[in-house]
Structures are given as structure tokens and as C-alpha cells.
Amino acid sequence: MKKICIFDFDGTLFNTIEDVAECLNKTLKFYGLNTFTLEQYQQKVGGNLYEILENLIGEENSNPETLEKFKDTYLEIAQKHDYTKTHPYEGMHQLLEKLQDNDIKLAVNSNRIPQSINHYLKEYMDNIEFIDIQGHVLTNPSKPDPYGVNHILKTANLDVEEAIYIGDSSTDVLTAKNAGIDVVLVSWGYSKPEDLKNQYITAVADTPDELYEIIN
Fold this sequence. Notes:
Blueprint: E1 4-7, E2 14-15, H1 17-30, H2 38-44, H3 49-57, H4 64-80, E3 87-88, H5 92-101, E4 105-109, H6 114-124, E5 132-134, H7 147-156, E6 163-167, H8 170-179, E7 182-186, E8 203-205, H9 208-215
Parallel strand pairs: 1-4, 1-6, 4-5, 6-7, 7-8
Antiparallel strand pairs: 2-3
């Protein structure tokens, strides 16, 4: 059995796509650009905020100054958003409780900003103890760089063989691969069909109960 589970946040622990899409569309509208549907966003999200924005406005229109301007506008809009549609995926809270009861350490590695991650975990999973939460901080490398995973393992005083990464996208697979740890993808997030066929994946879980069995 693994001694620590490192979870991605968006698309793995929490369903955030509707609120994220609304904030991104408001940002695009502010600058007079075309917006996208929820289904389109499920294919376009992934990576840190800069990478998402670049994907939306096009690499040909992207430069550091433009991306910084879009980022600031998005964060201002996101700060005022009510986020009524963001919630944990069904069964994930119970899964974390079972893992915690089995003395498996828990951590989060995400490209979402830490303040936002902490807000949702406190609101919905206040009884779960995460030994480390690594979000996107501008001074640190973001996923798929293994910086966050390495920091978590150092905090936990565990080796890569004792860890498993749980995510939903190609970014998560590459993060785990770069860190040298096993990875399980969940099918309920924002994964593309080709992501679930990646040869590096240990397994694919279709439900939290199935994920629990894989971890064990």
C-alpha cells in the first residue's frame, strides 16, 4: 500500500469547470474577444493560468504584457465571483476520509492558487488533514514541473516509491512522470480519450470506490 496520495484539485477532487468558464468568458468579453462553451473549455483548460489564457487568445496574440493584463483582469473578476457551482465530486470526501482512517497521508498539487484551494478544502473538507498543499505560486515552477511533488515528499519524509499521484489530465501524467512516481487518472474530470491511454498510467478509475481499491 502507498503511504501518501497526492491529488490534483480541478477535475479530480473538485468540479470547478462551470465557475472557471464563466470567469474566463467574462474576461474574454471585457477585451471584446469570442467566448467558449463549457464543452470547449473542458478541452482547453489545463496547465497554469498563463497557459490557459494563451490557449484561449491564441499564441499569435500572446506576449508577456498581454498575458499579464489578461491575468489581472481574470483574477479581479474571479475574486468577485460567487462560485455557487463549484463542489467536490460525489464520493471524493468519503474517499479521503477512508484513506485518512487508514493512515495514508494526503496532499494536493495543483496549478490553482493556494488561497483558492485552501478556501474550498476548508469549506467542504474541514475534517481532512492535508500534510501539504502545493498550488501555483509565481516564484515557483508550476506543473508539470515536479517541484510541488518533490516539496510534498520532502515534507512527508517519504520516497517516490511510497507515493501515488491522482489526477485527470495529461499535465498530471507528465507531472508524475517527471517526479518518478506512479499515477492514476480519474475519468470524471477533464481528461481527453488519449490521456486515458497513456502508457505511463498505472490505472484509470471510473468511480471513487474504484480509486480506493486501486490505491489499496
